[in-house]
# Entry
Amino acid sequence: MNILILGAGQVGCNIAESLVSLENHITIIDNDDRKLAKITERLDIQPILGHAAHPNVLERAGAKKTDVLIAVTNVDEINIVSCEIAHALFAVPVKIARIRDQNYFQEEHKSFIFREDNISIDYVISPEVEISKIISQGLQIGGSSSVIDIFDDAKLINVRCTEHSPVVNTPLKLLFNLFPDLDISIVAIQRAGQTIIPHQQDVIQKNDRVYLIARKSQILEAISAFGNLEQPQKSIIIGGGGNIGKWLAVEIEKTQPALDLKIIEKSTEQIEVIANFLKKADLLLGDTCSQEILQGAGIEKCDTFIAVTNDDKTNILSALLAKYYKVKNVMVLLSDKKLFQFASSLGIDSIIDPNAITVSTILSHTKQNRIKALHSIDSCVEIVEIFVEDTSNIVGLSTTYDILIPGQIIVAALKRGDELILYPDNFTITAYDKLIIAVTKDTVYKVKKIVLDHSSY
# Structure
């Protein structure tokens, strides 16, 4: 498949890395030759230097033969215009655009602007809204920093193992002896700055962040088994009232209206903006790193503190202050991956990766033949959905003995008709099955080779 990416920033590069490993033909446009040189050193993609919305640049990049255009430059208007030109001049079938400015999403504008007959964008991605929704879903079930839908009846969640977790020091192969009624599939473990696909001999350790798939009906049981199920929340403080803080507050008011919600924001202008969107939340003007402000917000009685300013260091410092005041659940937004391990070592409960959420959202709209990318974990492990056609090479193979590559590929779930099987041990794959596979980034290309029929090469 021919994919054209506009913008070689962090999100554009991560998307390219995810898609090129599936052996698509990737072209990327940017007006910074240094960014293009950096990404082409690592990836086998075609770089095009130029303005992403100029027709001649798009034509030079092969827009006429493009199947999917992904516009993720740093300028919303360039992303919008490039999609319009791709539609009008080159009839690109699928156009995805990242749009950050929330003026485009105001209720009086959104339903009109993004109508199919007005602006030719098939999928509009608002990172702030997507991040807010995922955090909000995690708050509703407790103990998870993110929740991703898998099929209709299961979710991908992540939980942090503390010294009080019942599963600590337990090999995975013995996990179900401890919890015989627990039906989950563990797909990845983050440990000391590394993300791995575990095998049955791996032992769960203190401070591990475990990614698992659970049925919707068993999510609370799964979180409880890992020692993360807290009492119902009564109070949440959001540190930072920018777009993420604002939309997160909107989601919380909508989904958990009984909560006592407070937002701390240092900009008077932004406080006034937030006030127009919220009904009940208390707005406090001040610095999230000020002990006086935190005490005024009632930090001593707070159940969850969420630091989502646009500055990583501010988020870490305010999160540490929340920990000092014994807040049970502290979540921090970090854009710099280099800080992840440091933040985890400080005892911060959950780290929110905005780039990974944005990339995963975009990938979910990018279907590659029979393989659909669902979620990227720390740019190391991909969760993908595979639809098995009757001509596929894997029909008749075993989910365990033929597909499993320890530490590289596991079949985490199998959907057969209406039946969902988590961690399908030694099932024979049949036509029209749907598989959820966890695979390391550098092994994704093997997935295509074993899935597609010979005639497709």
Q: What stands out?
A: Residues 453-457 have pLDDT under 50 and may be disordered. Residues 162 and 206 are 5 Å apart (CA to CA). The chain has 15 helices and 23 strands.
